[in-house]
Amino acid sequence: MSDIDEVFTKLGFGKMQFIILFCCFLMQIWMTNEQLGFGVVIAGASCEMEIHDRRLAWLLAANFSAQMISCFIWGELADLYGRRRVIGFASIVAIIFSLISALMPEYWSFMAVRTVCGFFIVASVVSLSTYLSEFTKVSLRPRVLTIMGYSLGVSMIYVPSLGGALLSMRMEPSGWRILLLCNQLPGIIGTTLLIFLPESPKYYLSIDDQEKAMKVMERVCRMNKGKDVTLKSLGVESLTQARLRPPNEERGQCHETKVLMVKYGKVMWFFFFIFFTLTGLGFALPIWMMRIRVLTSTFGDRNTICEHMEHISAQPRGNKDCHLTYEQMKDPLIHGCVVLCLFIATSVFLIWLSRRAVIIAFVCVSILGCVALNFMEHPTLILISFFAIIDPLICSVRLAGSLLIDFVPTHLRGKAFALITMIGRSGVLITSVYVGYTLSHSCYVTFNTFIVVLIVCGMLVYWLPTHFKHSSFTN
Question: Mind listing the domains of the chain with CATH numbers?
């Protein structure tokens, strides 16, 4: 029997992997449009939907609560029925509900439909990285997942660029509704492409389906090496992989979750807090950054963010301009460029540094950003401080995910990713509600509490098991 990772090394990173990477890249753009890009949609919809700070907090809380509740279900289904099938079905349903949400006439129906959308979109969040990584040899996995992360920067440029053009226009239907429709295009293309791609061969091995695993690998072989090359010609008669489920092991949801939390319990608890922090702050704060910048854009005097927020009520403020301009989209557009550049820089850092070292360095940068918000008064320096908090954490999520994939065997990865996604979404939920209720009343407490949380996160990354100290690029 040939180890499947050794076979992937023989086949190289070829045409099949590039197609799968392109598909996952499009899907990740769509998911980012739906989550981080949603802040631009909300900025445009705030007047028409009467969305003030507390309504925004509960809109985000409802959406991410649905994600938190459903992600373990999707993780179970991904391990049971396969990554590709779950991603495809859930993405189609999520896109349909996103399109419906663009037609909703008022806040409460809009929130209800967006909550249903959140229930389904998290299936792709749980399974997409796993699907891509299981077609990639171990030594390339962190770099490939980081390249897929470039899509976050592309999305964060795509949405504000469209938003600047659409949200400034006085038309029916409203610009933000058209923007929400346009945000679905990468998902529609990516889901269509996914239909023609194979299921993960490692998933087939995990359910002991040798025949289907060989068929997928034969297809990869012919795509990468040419039609004249077969697995047999490379000396591959059958496949296996490390840490397969023992044939006599009991199967079932409760048993496998118990195995995950008992056998890998200590590190899983470390990952829970790490993902709670990285995802919670990295994905909740961009929406609040956009809102804060829009709310404070009318102030002429230079004060810190917290001094400005003392004069802004969390409740509706009466008449305001519902039509945003390209000038107001400039900040998120710059933000997207910074995120894209930082992901590219991360790919370079990983050539020389371990993933743990990069994550710890990024957490330290975020701590400095939180400290800087206490006294920065110049608008550009305030913007840079926000970027320093948010962007390193967004990049760190990918690196932490690749560590988890290396740590957990194939038949438990869906559950492991579901659990850390659930914890991450709870981090987004708690951060959103926390900022919504404290920002106008105790702003300094809001950002300085994050410093303590980030310090603990950095310490836990440092204390991860010693085999994570080594870079996986040495193979």
Answer: 2-241+251-474 (1.20.1250.20)
